């Protein structure tokens, strides 16, 4: 069964009598819908609605949660959470020397002997389990990245910069990372407005080419006009955050889409519920 050890991830623990209420009021994820044994994506937003921190959240027992995030942003994330703590009865701490291990495949379920094992709910068509018990084996990180990319799962750093994307841009509305029925949280008004008006134009798309794709950050262009930005890639398959209205216009007009100077095809992840707009943006509007 394939597995990978992720050395660039760590955990932040939030525990105490007010832990769930505290997190429910600031994060995008609806904790009322978070079951034991599963990890869901989420974000802490700026008041303007853009993602400041992204993570996977899971329950770690009664009144306790794990927030798995990039190791390089963990200290800043803890400081930001502390700003919202006020008088809440919670303890917030970064875990030291955590080993995040992934297992995937049809039989990848959390082991009964591993109380930290959780199912990664971002994946609709794959069974992916995450463990925080640790292993010294590195496994196949390249295969893991290829799996993530093939399934259209974007992560900050690799695919977008924090502070530069809305939750809809990176499909948190599609992967269970936004609670549309919960109460207010930081940035909630902007996210709700985007959802109800259907104004999300930037989306994660899967990019494929006949050659290895260029570096992350390369622009996707149509007739010299930018339509998106390439994120991480695995050989000839990659992710991009792109304007779906401009992609639609290019497809309707039969215009080539380029990543740098490489022709590419661009598709919506198979599991996603959104589609290309019925009416594409015109060349003048683009």
Automatic annotation (TrEMBL):
GO annotation terms (biological process): iron-sulfur cluster assembly
Superkingdom of this protein's organism: Bacteria
Domain GCVT N-terminal: 12-103
Domain CAF17 C-terminal: residue ranges: 201-273
Keywords: Transit peptide
Pfam families: Beta-barrel_CAF17_C, GCV_T
NCBIfam families the UniProt entry points to: ygfZ_signature (TIGR03317)
Protein name in the entry: Folate-binding protein
Organism, as annotated: Mesorhizobium loti R88b
């Amino acid at each position: 069964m394939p597995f990978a050890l992720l050395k660039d991830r760590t955990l932040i623990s939030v525990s105490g009598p007010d832990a769930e209420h505290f997190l429910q009021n600031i994060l995008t994820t609806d904790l009322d819908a978070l079951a034991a044994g599963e990890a869901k994506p989420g974000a802490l937003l700026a008041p303007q609605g853009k993602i400041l921190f992204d993570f996977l959240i899971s329950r770690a027992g009664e009144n306790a949660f794990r927030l798995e995030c990039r190791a390089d942003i963990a200290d800043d994330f803890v400081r930001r959470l502390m700003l919202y703590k006020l008088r809440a009865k919670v303890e917030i701490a970064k875990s030291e020397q955590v080993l995040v291990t992934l297992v995937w495949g049809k039989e990848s379920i959390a082991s009964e002997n591993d109380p930290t094992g959780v199912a990664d709910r971002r994946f609709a068509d794959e069974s992916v389990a995450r463990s925080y018990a640790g292993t010294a084996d590195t496994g196949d990180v390249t295969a893991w990245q290829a799996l993530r990319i093939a399934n259209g799962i974007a992560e900050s750093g690799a695919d977008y910069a924090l502070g530069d994307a809305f939750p809809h841009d990176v499909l948190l509305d599609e992967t269970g990372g936004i609670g549309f029925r919960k109460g207010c949280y930081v940035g909630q008004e902007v996210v709700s407005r985007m959802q109800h008006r259907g104004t999300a134009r930037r989306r994660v798309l899967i990019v494929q080419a006949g050659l290895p794709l260029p570096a992350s950050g390369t622009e996707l262009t149509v007739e010299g006009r930018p339509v998106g930005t390439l994120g991480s890639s695995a050989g000839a398959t990659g992710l991009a955050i792109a304007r779906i209205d401009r992609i639609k216009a290019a497809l309707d007009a039969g215009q080539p889409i380029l990543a740098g100077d490489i022709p590419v095809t661009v598709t919506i992840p198979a599991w996603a519920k959104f589609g290309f707009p019925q009416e594409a943006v015109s060349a003048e509007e683009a």
